[in-house]
Model the fold of this input.
Amino acid sequence: MDVVERTRALIREPSVSPDPGGAMSLCASWLGDLGFDVSEMSFASAEFPEVKNLYARLGTEGPNFCFAGHTDVVPEGDLAQWVHPPYDGVVDAGNVYGRGAADMKGAIAAFFAATERYLASPGGGHGSISLLLTGDEEGPAVNGTDKVLTWLEERGETLDMCLVGEPTSVQRLGDTAKIGRRGSMQGFVHARGIQGHAAYPERAHNPVPDLINVLHAFEHMVLDTGNAHFQPSNLEVLDLSVGNDRDNVIPGEARGRFNVRFNSDHTSAELIERFEQRARAIADNVTLSWRVSGESFLTPEGALSAAICDAVEEVTGAVPELSTTGGTSDARFIHRMCPVVEFGLVGQSMHKINEHVAVADLHHLVDIYERILRRALRPQR
Ligand SMILES: [Zn+2]
Done:
């Protein structure tokens, strides 16, 4: 099966997270055909449902080059707006249509096609090829890659470099690879006051001004001015809630919520301490709580990014920009084990109605991935 047929086959197995559908099993059977040693695993937690994951390896020597990705997709949205049904994998005017075509079943299909071609042609290198696939990337990402990495660590299994096949290309295939991401965390502000009659404010304490003052101060903190690889860190207020519908009542409490996207100048712990100090200086009746989605990370330019840049330039004629913009991905977990770079298809249509990918791009992506494998696993002299 070529890359287009594999992409279509994966699209025809709907896998809206956390439901694995048949997509993960299909990958497992393809991996078995190629001779990989396949481990399928499911994880569950009290909060989130069970999800399927998979790790497969071909070879026992190092270095171990890993392709990582997710088989789960986001919901299709309004069916009536799709020009072709989202789970048919229709090819029309040089594009494959379907949910997951760009994000990221097309890239998974390219992992297989590139590996197959690499194995079939002479002059292969040393080392191992592995695949890490999760069904929980578009979901809460709690029972996915993070837990697979722990599973690998428990078995003494290491990855030496990893390529995540997210659709990082912006306008045309190969224009952008991601070598890092900003961290992300949610902050929750709770201001407690004393409820009372609006006509007798001296007998109450209104928490709303305290909430506003704290958030206003946070908005105006300059966290940094950016660095060589990252844009400045940024805070956005997302929600304010008091829930008071009375004309004559000063409310007893007020809440707010904000998100911080932070660069490699910070850890979440250091930023949290700064925000806590700032809040304490403004109001002593305000408490903060936090949920950290991911730390910022950066893969320094090295052998992996060089292999990707060279392969992309050979196939497309242009060197990719090494970027750190955009949202989080599973690379934030993999970074703890090995150098990781994200590189894949054009992401313009991802998560949208009529998601699609160019047939030509799929073929070029196979060329690029195969060249990356050759460079990464080239025998050392
Ligand atoms: Zn994705």
Q: What stands out?
A: The two ends are 35 Å apart (CA to CA). The chain has a mean pLDDT of 95. The chain has two domains: 3-181+296-376, 183-294. Residues 101-120 form the longest helix (20 residues).
